[in-house]
Amino acid sequence: MNPWISASCILAVVLLGSVSVSGGNKIPDGNKLPDNVQRVLDKADQIELLTLDPRVFRDDVKDGFYGTQILGKTVLKDADTRKKILTALKKGIQEIKERQESAAFYPRYAIRATHKKTTVGLMISFDPPVILVYVGEQHTAQVFTTASPEPAFDQVLRDAKVRIAPKPDKK
Q1: 2, 6, 22, 143: which has the highest count of C-beta atoms within 10 A?
Q2: For residue 99, what is the DSSP state?
Q3: What is the separation, in whole angstroms, between the first and last Cα of the chain?
Q4: Helical segments of the chain, H only
Q5: Domain 25-159, what architecture?
Q6: Are 101 and 121 in contact (CB under 8 A)?
Q7: What is the pLDDT at residue 132?
Q8: How far apart are CA 164 and CA 157, in angstroms?
Q9: CA angle 81–130–136, rounded 5-degree value
Q10: What's the half-sphere exposure (Cβ side, CA atoms, 13 Å) at 109?
Q11: Residues 6+ away with beta carbon under 8 Å from 153
């Protein structure tokens, strides 16, 4: 057998093996909120649920959320509402098995929580379902989720009479 053909076959097998081992769109182990962020959420002095306008994304947005325009917000004052939102968020993160590839990032929601002097921010898109995690002003992590928390978020925002950004067109 031609040595070049043998080498090409071996290379192809190695490459195909590495692709299948890497898992393609499989969610990596450890897809969870960082421990320090989870601690702030669990012990927060204040938690806000925000709705964002993902069409307005730039550094000079006045009173924005990491460059995104805030449409409205509500403070999660009672324990039941906090639990509803944080449980839905955790469930969405635990449910995700494969990430959805998308060229777009359409964050329509955010959570801002403060405990003592630490503020964390979660910029949340359900299309594609991904969460950008911030501690203070620093982007520190990216976590994948399903869209399952969205109805709970919408219900809390509607109950508080907060405007919600429209879903993206699926053209």
Answers
A1: 143
A2: P
A3: 51
A4: 3-22, 35-43, 79-95, 150-159
A5: 2-Layer Sandwich (3.30)
A6: no
A7: 95
A8: 7
A9: 70
A10: 25
A11: 49, 85, 88, 109, 124
Non-local CB neighbours of 28 within 8 Å, separated by 6+ positions: none
126 residue type, one letter: F
* Cα–Cα distance measured from residue 65 to residue 129, given in angstroms and rounded to the nearest whole number: 18
State both tokens at 7. Answer: 């080498």
**Residue 83 has which token pair?**
């639990």
pLDDT digits (tens, 9 = 90+) for 131-154: 999 999 999 999 999 999 999 999
Q: Per-domain residue ranges for the chain?
A: 25-159
Ramachandran sector of residue 125 (left: φ over 0; alpha: ψ -120 to 50; beta: rest): beta
Tell me the whole-structure pTM to 2 decimals: 0.81
H/E segment holding residue 121: strand 118-126
Tokens of 9: 């076959």
Per-residue pLDDT reduced to its tens digit, 48-64: 999 999 887 777 777 78
CB 54 within 8 A of CB 165: yes
Of 42-46, 101-105, 119-123, the range with the lowest mean pLDDT is 101-105
Res 36 pLDDT > 60: yes
Which residue matches tokens 């002097």? 117
* Strand partners of residue 48: 75, 112
